[in-house]
Known about the structure:
The chain is α/β, with parallel strands linked by helices. Helix content is about 50%, strand content about 15%.
Amino acid sequence: xxxxxxxxxxxxxxxxxxxxxxxxxxxxxxxxxxxxxxxxxxxxxxxxxxxxxxxxxxxxxxxxxxxxxxxxxxxxxxxxxxxxxxxxxxxxxxxxxxxxxxxxxxxxxxxxxxxxxxxxxxxxxxxxxxxxxxxxxxxxxxxxxxxxxxxxxxxxxxxxxxxxxxxxxxxxxxxxxxxxxxxxxxxxxxxxxxxxxxxxxxxxxxxxxxxxxxxxxxxxxxxxxxxxxxxxxxxxxxxxxxxxxxxxxxxxxxxxxxxxxxxxxxxxxxxxxxxxxxxxxxxxxxxxxxxxxxxxxxxxxxxxxxxxxxxxxxxxxxxxxxxxxxxxxxxxxxxxxxxxxxxxxxxxxxxxxxxxxxxxxxxxxxxxx
Length: 369
C-alpha cells in the first residue's frame, strides 16, 4: 500500500494543468500514486496527461463527462493509498504538502488532516478558522461539525468552515465506504464528502498555520457570472444534505442544515438578480419560483435570524412573504446606497478627518465637554 493517493479530476484544464501536475509529481513524499481522471475533456488535457505516464506513479483514465463528484468517486475506487487527497486541475500545491500532512496523520492516528490555503489572485491567506491542533471525537462534534454546514459569525455574517476536499487528507477507509454520491449535485459538491467524512471521523488534525494549497481564482470565470438553472443544482444539494442530516437524528445539526438551506436560497436569489437587467420578466419568474419552493418552509422559524446582519433579516422576511418584486427593489436600493457611500460619503469623511480647520473645531468641542 502506498502512503498517499492523489486524485486529480480534470475537465478542460490545459491552460493550468502542467503547473498542477508538476507540483504533485515533485512532492517530497515520494511514496504516492497520482490518479488522473479525465472527465470528458475536449481540449488538450488528455495529451498533457499522457506525457506524465513515464512516471510509474501516474495513471490516467478517461471517462464521459459526469461532473466532479463522479470523477472523485471513480478515483477513490481506484486508490490504493493509506490516505487519499485531491487536487483540482487548475490549482497547485506546495511540494511539501503531502509529506507534511501524512506525517501529522500517522503521528496522531488521524482520520482527517486539514490544512490552509492561499488564493492566487491576490495572494490572500485565509485566517485560521479554528485553533490549530488535534481534535478528538467530542471536539470534532463541538468545534468542527457544528460549523461545517453553516453558522452565523459574531458580526452577523454567514460563515462555514471551508469544505474543500482539496485541503484535506482522508484516511482511505473513511471515504471508501458509506459515502453517498449524487451525480445531480453539481454545486458545492465538495461539501457532501467533507460533511460525511467529518461525521465519521474520530481524530482530526487542523493545520491552520500551514498554507500548503494554492487555489486559483480565475477572474471573469463562469462562476462569477450568471449561472442558468442554479436553483435546480442547489436544490439537489440541499435535499441530499437534508437526507444525510435527518439520519443523524440531531436537532442541533438539523438546525444547522436549515441555516445551510437558507444561505443556499440567498445564493440563488443573488444569482437571478445578476440576470435582471438582461431579462426582467424571466428573472422575476425565477425569483418567484425559488421563493415558492417548499424547501423555504423547512427552515422558517428554525434559524437564528435575530443574530444575522440586516440584509439577511430582510431576505428572510421577503422570502417568507413571497414578494419577488420587493427583493429586486431592496437590492436596487441597497446597491445604490452602497454606491453613494463609496462615491460621496467616504471622500467627505476623509476630507473632514484631514481638514486642519475641522480638526481645531473638533478639539475645542472636546475641551468644552
